[in-house]
């Protein structure tokens, strides 16, 4: 029998409604405490002609062809935001930007966009709701389309990288923040949107941070333009001959501004609201009181040395409680309620999955079936979506998740959350120019978000596998991604949108100066920036692709080497976590199968061989099965490949094949990854050619045993050592030939703090904004 972990119940830590701060607007039960002014005509749309009915009092809402169930109608009315609807809408009418805070699960993401739609905001444009993660955008749009009784992809849609389910009829568009940044690159005013909701703003992802500055700028630009048009309209009116006043209406109509103001809404359950209010010119903060169902929080009495083991014990302990019927609260919850466990990454998830599966046969008789469902970013979308499936009768789901499931999601049936209190976080070191992944404690905001995945359909419990004093010592919020990431892509995107003065850009919080410097240098060496720091023609094309600059440069250069087809295939293959499916008991067998595809010209060519063979056998399932090929991964590869081909066709790139002349492919990769090169040392270790750091080929590389003299790698991960992944052998003479800017006349920068680096930086940031 498993020893129970020592969990202490803290009776007073039940989730309580938000405390309303002094001096801010309170929205509660429909009573609003803000000045009541009539909405300005230019910013509040009429509440007519919404295609979905707003009469929530009717028994059944019929929208287009589907019928919305009475159950959903009642659920919507029971949400805390429902009673605050009037006040919410009035505030949005009155103010350009509004900050909305309410407990997790109160209806922000699903309801507020529907209210605004019903109030007519979608007559003036689309409402975008951004999400930091694709799984949230996809699952919530599905829920909202059900609530509105419409087909997903019609009035309600989603747009995430490489997957767009929206149409010209889409009025509510759930999308990842990255997709909205990409749209801004094509239309710098984001003119099709009337309202943009930046949801889960507390997450402070790189793209949400870009959007804060960008939307603030766009809002001002659109308002200035409206004012200018209104002024012109007035001047035109005064010029009118009084006798022809009958014609006034037609003339005014003709010059009436087509542009509409942009409403910005910042939303979260756990936000430093004052910071945002100050940034958005004292935007009002609306706190919506109440929460759906209470969640009881428990802490451990002592620190847990092995949190995976503690999670295992806690899950089993919860599961065994069922035998005593302790937890059955309702019919929906007849299985005792599902369990959601937060871990740091794939390896841990698979480890705990194995431990649980090993224990299941040893559980006492009478226990319900335990279904283990993993969810992490690298898992194909269809598999991720499995966590949302209802547990079959007589079974209970245990979802093992990374922080991908931390915010925004409602997963049916979750009664218990098990929070290990840690997260894997990427930190960029501008000195050496690489990211490292570290396991670190979560913030208080993250802990609250994790807890908030329960208490959405019924009461819940959250087991925090750390002590209460650990919680109290946690940071209030996590370090924003922009402060710990390489910002080369951010700079490329901002410059494409027309923001040239990166240092002068109105960031909510600016990235560190050494990071900006390093990223500018990287873009310059990639030839994305000119000597004056402007976007080069190549840079403009690079920004078109939803890829990191190093990949987009490789892709574009491969056109010159006549091997775009091969490079597109390789980049698509590299976009998935693992091509091979390795059953635990067949490791040796898989290794010998892998050799069939092996090429001494590198991992990339080996992957290319797999793809070509997969194409030759027309994706035969039998072939995949016999060769341990992960079918789901290959389906994703094909999807990414097709999308990339579309991008190439749209900018008229010639897709040619080099057949088997793989030197061309290797040279193309040098054009993008010239900084990721290393040379073998007599002691069989590698040293990077840029800064002489010791690295090793990762054991999963096909070149692990071969150890070529000079290598290029796509990725460096730092665990116990620095490991190079996806490795190609190269010739050192190719470096100055392909990258004269870096290895030719220009010396390799050794000291990133040198004056010359600063001069380069100044040069890059002196240009004015467009
Ligand atoms: N797929 C779903 N199935 C069942 N109920 C759902 C689903 N999605 C949402 N709900 C219900 O709607 C409520 C509101 O969800 P919503 O995502 O709008 O809340 P939220 O305030 O945005 O929460 P969070 O701060 O956690 O993002 C949930 O608590 C749940 O009761
Ligand atoms: Mg939400």
TrEMBL record:
Domain (Helicase ATP-binding) ranges: 89-289
Xref: SUPFAM superfamilies: P-loop containing nucleoside triphosphate hydrolases (SSF52540)
EC number(s) stated in the UniProt entry for this protein: 3.6.4.13
MF term (GO), any: double-stranded RNA binding
Catalysed reactions, semicolon-separated: ATP + H2O = ADP + phosphate + H(+)
The protein's name: RNA helicase
Species of the source: Polysphondylium violaceum
Residue spans of biased composition, Low complexity class: 20-31, 41-60
Alphabetized Gene3D superfamilies for the sequence: 1.20.120.1080, P-loop containing nucleotide triphosphate hydrolases
Compositional bias segments (type: Basic and acidic residues): 229-242
GO BP terms, alphabetized: mRNA processing; positive regulation of transcription by RNA polymerase I; RNA splicing
UniProt biased composition (Polar residues): 750-770
Residue ranges occupied by any Helicase C-terminal domain in the UniProt entry: 322-498
PANTHER family: ATP-DEPENDENT RNA HELICASE, ATP-DEPENDENT RNA HELICASE DHX33
Alphabetically ordered keywords of this record: ATP-binding, Helicase, Hydrolase, mRNA processing, mRNA splicing, Nucleotide-binding
The UniProt record lists the keyword Hydrolase: yes
EC class name: hydrolase
PROSITE patterns found in the cross-reference section: DEAH_ATP_HELICASE (PS00690), HELICASE_ATP_BIND_1 (PS51192), HELICASE_CTER (PS51194)
């Amino acid at each position: 029998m498993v020893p129970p972990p020592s969990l202490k119940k803290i009776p007073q830590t039940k989730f309580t409604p938000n405390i309303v701060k002094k001096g801010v607007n309170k929205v509660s039960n429909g009573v609003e405490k803000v000045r009541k002014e009539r909405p300005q005509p230019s910013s509040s749309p009429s509440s007519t002609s919404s295609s979905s009915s707003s009469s929530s009092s009717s028994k059944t809402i019929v929208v287009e062809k589907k019928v919305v169930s009475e159950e959903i109608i009642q659920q919507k009315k029971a949400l805390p935001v429902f009673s605050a609807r009037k006040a919410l809408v009035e505030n949005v009418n009155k103010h350009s930007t509004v900050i909305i805070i309410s407990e997790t699960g109160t209806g922000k993401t699903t309801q507020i966009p529907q209210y605004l739609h019903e109030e007519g905001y979608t007559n003036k444009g689309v409402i975008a709701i951004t999400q930091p993660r694709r799984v949230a955008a996809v699952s919530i749009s599905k829920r909202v389309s059900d609530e509105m009784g419409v087909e997903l992809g019609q009035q309600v849609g989603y747009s995430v990288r490489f997957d767009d389910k929206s149409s010209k009829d889409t009025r509510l568009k759930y999308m990842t923040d990255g997709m909205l940044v990409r749209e801004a690159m094509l239309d710098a005013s984001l003119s099709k949107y009337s309202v943009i909701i930046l949801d889960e703003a507390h997450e402070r992802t790189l793209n949400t941070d870009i959007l804060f500055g960008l939307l603030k700028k766009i809002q001002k630009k659109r308002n200035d333009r409206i004012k200018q048009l209104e002024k012109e309209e007035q001047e035109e009116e005064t010029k009118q001959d009084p006798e022809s006043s009958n014609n006034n209406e037609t003339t005014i109509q003709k010059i009436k501004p087509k542009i509409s103001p942009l409403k910005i809404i910042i939303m979260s359950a756990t936000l430093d609201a004052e910071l945002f209010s100050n940034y958005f010119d004292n935007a009002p903060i609306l706190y919506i009181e109440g929460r759906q169902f209470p969640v009881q929080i428990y802490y451990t009495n002592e620190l847990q040395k092995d949190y995976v083991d503690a999670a295992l014990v806690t899950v089993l302990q919860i599961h065994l409680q069922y035998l005593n019927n302790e937890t059955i609260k309702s019919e929906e919850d007849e299985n005792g309620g599902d369990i959601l466990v937060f871990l740091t990454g794939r390896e841990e998830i698979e480890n705990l999955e194995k431990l649980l599966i090993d224990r299941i046969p040893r559980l006492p008789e009478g226990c319900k079936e335990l279904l283990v469902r993993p969810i992490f970013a690298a898992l194909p979308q269809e598999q991720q979506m499995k966590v949302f499936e209802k547990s079959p009768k007589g079974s209970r789901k245990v979802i093992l998740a990374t922080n991908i499931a931390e915010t925004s999601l409602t997963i049916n049936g979750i009664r218990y959350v098990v929070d290990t209190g840690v997260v894997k976080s990427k930190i960029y070191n501008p000195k050496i120019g690489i990211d490292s992944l570290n396991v670190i404690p979560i913030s208080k905001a993250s802990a609250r978000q994790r807890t908030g995945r329960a208490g959405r359909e019924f009461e819940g419990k959250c087991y925090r596998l750390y002590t209460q004093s650990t919680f109290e010592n946690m940071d209030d919020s996590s370090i924003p991604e922009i402060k710990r990431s390489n910002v080369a892509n951010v700079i490329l995107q901002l410059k494409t949108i027309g923001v040239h003065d990166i240092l002068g850009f109105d960031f909510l919080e600016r990235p560190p100066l050494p990071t900006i410097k390093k990223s500018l240098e990287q873009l310059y060496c990639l030839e994305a920036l000119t000597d004056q720091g402007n976007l080069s023609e190549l840079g403009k094309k690079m920004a078109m692709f939803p890829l990191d600059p190093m990949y987009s440069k490789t892709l574009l250069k491969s056109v010159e080497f006549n091997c775009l087809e091969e490079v597109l295939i390789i980049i698509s293959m590299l976009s998935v976590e693992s091509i091979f499916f390795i059953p635990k008991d067949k490791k040796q067998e898989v290794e010998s199968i892998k050799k069939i595809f092996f090429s001494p010209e590198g991992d990339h060519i080996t992957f290319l061989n797999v793809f070509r063979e997969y194409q030759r056998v027309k994706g035969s399932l039998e072939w995949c099965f016999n060769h341990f090929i992960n079918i789901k991964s290959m389906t994703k590869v094909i999807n990414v490949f097709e999308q990339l081909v579309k991008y190439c066709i749209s900018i008229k790139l010639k897709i040619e094949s080099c057949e088997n002349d793989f030197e061309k492919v290797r040279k193309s990769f040098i054009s993008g990854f010239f900084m990721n090169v290393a040379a073998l040392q007599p002691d069989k270790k590698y040293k990077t050619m840029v800064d002489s750091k010791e690295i090793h080929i990762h054991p999963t590389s096909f070149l692990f045993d071969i150890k070529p003299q000079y290598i290029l790698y796509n990725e460096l991960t730092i665990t116990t050592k620095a490991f190079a992944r996806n490795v190609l052998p190269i010739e050192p003479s190719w470096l100055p030939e392909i990258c004269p800017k870096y290895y030719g006349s220009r010396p390799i920068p050794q000291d990133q703090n040198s004056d010359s680096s600063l001069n380069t930086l100044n040069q890059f940031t002196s240009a004015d904004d467009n």
